[in-house]
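Thread title: Can someone regenerate the structure for this chain?

I was given the following input by a collaborator and told the matching structure tokens would be attached. They weren't. Posting the sequence so someone can regenerate them.
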Amino acid sequence: MKHNIIISSLLAATALTFTSCDDEFTESNMESVEIVINYPSDIDNDEITDAFVTFRNISSGQSTEFRYPSSSQISVLPGIYDVEYSVSALSSTGNTISIKGVTRSVQIVSSGVVIRIDAYSNIATDDLIISEVFFTGTLQNSGNQYNGDDYVKLYNNTDHVVYADGITLFETKFLTTQKLTFEPDIMDEAVTVQALYTIPGNGKEHPVNPGEYILLADVGIDHRTANPNSFSLEHADWEWYDVSTKPNNLDIDSPLVPNLDKWYCYTQSFWILHNRGFKAFGIARIPIDRETYLKDYWYSYDYELVTNAGTFPMSQSSYKLPNEWVIDAVNCSVESEWQWNVTSPKLDMGWAYCGTIDKDKTRYFHAVRRKLLYLREDGTPVFKDTNNSSVDFNSHVTPSEIELQHTITGLGQESSKIVTYDGITSIAQ
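Best answer:
Regenerated them for you:
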């Protein structure tokens, strides 16, 4: 279903940034922008209430929010914008749900611009969520990267027991720092993935109570033995382990931590999370067995590689993971390098980061952690989950394991003294 919104936008002729409220505009400067919202099929346009359109100027970073419908004119200046739409609506079942959509890098310089936004229902899985991704790793005293202490934490944000059996951790194939035009484009239907590791179990073996975490580690050992600047992951619930075919790059199989079931990984040695976070990481529940999945979900695509030497046609393959199987996802990047999300907005409308520039040494000893929303009466934290990682996560914060173990927060820095819920909000001691 489509719903058209005609917005009068006050555009100055040459300005590229927002001006102050004292700037004067005339009717001759008025330009119209048409916004076309494509709603999910189960949403009745007539039942929509409290809709908002937000224009974020990419150059200045300033956001302006407008209510829809509104009789007032929307005033923005020429520039390039990310335009987001959000609304509460009634589904065909009578439930109130959140509908959101975004289109990025829209250039507004004159009238007649049509902004098309595909709106999606927030996927509410009533399942575990990703609470933290520590992908940057730590440094050795030499300043060299230390590998093996990266991890992902999952959390039961519900008010009931959730079983972790069968949850699959994945990493995407595409980079958030390199936008591709690829064919066939299946992003609206599936995620293109290059690593899949699954929690074993028969469906009722691994209960997770409300307020409990699951720690998935790269290598479940005390890393301080090899790198005094790191911490221990001996208490992890599971680790991902790879039988390497490269004799000089062997993985470590901790005797203290059980292994995840490896479904697939692109590497012939061992997998570590991309240490600049140029991927999206997620969790899914795959409703078919491993053999069937590996047989039926291989995906080949074509794209153009643009370099200084020219443009070259390329072909690659990987696995695809249907969006309806995905429980949660977080797109990650470096602040200055992000170009696009590598998942559908159905899964994540935003992104989180560690570091401000590419190869930023300050990214080490930092993680992305989900924001605290509130505490239940029993003190159990509830975290923010709107399927928008830009607002759901605190970026570039101290990892929880560094806080809990009071290890150093960076080379030459002191040990962590406080423990927080989310890298920002302190836990009362």
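Confidence is low (pLDDT under 50) at residues 1-28.
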